[in-house]
Amino acid sequence: MRTNIRSILLIISGSVAAYKSLELIRRLREQDVQVHSILTAGGAEFITPLAVSSLTGTPTYTDLFSLRDEVDMGHIRLSREADAVLVAPASADIIAKLANGMANDLATTALLATDKPVIVAPAMNHRMWEHASTQRNIATLRAQGIHIVEPESGDMACGETGKGRFADTPTLLAALNGIEPPSLPLAGKKALVTSGPTYEPVDPVRFIGNRSSGKQGHAIAAALAQAGAEVTLITGPTHEPTPAGVVPVHVQTAEDMLAAAEEALPADIAVCAAAVSDWRPDVVSAQKIKKIDTGEEFSMNLIPNPDILKALGQHAQRPSLLIGFAAETNDVLEHAKQKLASKGCDWLLANDVSGGQVFSEDNNTVWRITRQSTDAWPTASKRAIAQKLVDEIIFTLQPKTQDTHHG
Ligand code: CTP
Q1: Annotated catalytic, 158?
Q2: Which atom of ligand 1 is nearest to the CA of 324?
Q3: Which residues lie below 8 Å from residue 286, measured CB to CB, with a gap of 6+?
Q4: Nearest CA to ligand 1 atom 12
Q5: pLDDT band for position 308 (50/70/90)?
Q6: Which of 129-143, 194-208, 268-282, 357-371 has the lowest mean pLDDT?
Q7: CA distances from 154 to 158, 166, 332, 383 (A)
Q8: Cα of 306 to ligand 1 centre, how many Å?
Q9: Catalytically annotated residue among 51, 158, 289, 302
């Protein structure tokens, strides 16, 4: 049974059936469904976060008050990024909390914060299931539009027989299959992203490069793809893996990057996040340059590289939304405003690299500069900045209604 959805948030609560959710994760992963997971304190009595993470391939979130979890991905985002939230197995306790709007741990907070379809698959002792309180809570959830995957009848782990067994994996997949795939906000849009450094060869063993990690550009490509865009990621050499759903084009030099960017046109959106080497040696030696030939000192003539962002800005097929970055060490905003004008782009994300750390750090502080405005974005992970950028892109490209009173 194939599911329509591309990603789910799986909440595993305290039930002896928790181990069965591992089988469900495996089946979902086989279908390329991305699984983020929350293991409640009760769930963690039965299975470990490590077992869950090793199957999902993503971190398992366990505690609302864990600073690492919240910094990594806040509960609001966690609950909204997925196409659906599945509580499986759902204990009587989590069902009662959800029915009453309680939010005293990560799982219940995410459940209250989500704007996505919620599916609840109960698993508990049959008397607990039949109890008037549980039945009232289930009726409340149904009335709220939450889909309940009925538990099954049979022998239970506690030795009793009755209704309360966790539904089997095909039934859970069928329930997920009933969910309409969300219409993604950038579906039908083409995007190109440049990322990473460029390497400009000096001779067969040496090059001029820089410390760009590609983290920011790759995170932007990932977020654009998640929003449904068709993404070409033109990247210099990095250790970053190619994000899911993105078409990579691997290049070394600025000239190759420009050619690949032009090849990727037409595009609706272009984000130039690459740290392109501004210069390259005018002559590339076919053989390794030897000290014996150069003497003690050696100098090289450097010539300018093409400016990819500027070239896209002047291109006959200029992307409708062209976004650049500006890495500055001083007078950040002033330089960035000049750069916005000289490169002919629509937005510039400026960051202060005076600390010298930005290339490998996960966190980044940026200002978004447009022709009309400058706004400071709070310091956040490169992934969170990528998401914010994509949210702004979605907002800007969405068809505007006639009514501009709110805009
Ligand atoms: N950029 C580009 N091609 C280049 C140089 C820069 O596409 N040859 C893009 C970068 O991807 C970034 C923006 O231009 O989006 C600004 O890069 P930055 O290094 O800050 O500016 P430079 O134009 O190189 O200017 P300077 O180094 O003098 O600050």
Answers
A1: yes
A2: 15
A3: 203, 204
A4: 325
A5: very high
A6: 357-371
A7: 11, 10, 67, 46
A8: 10
A9: 158
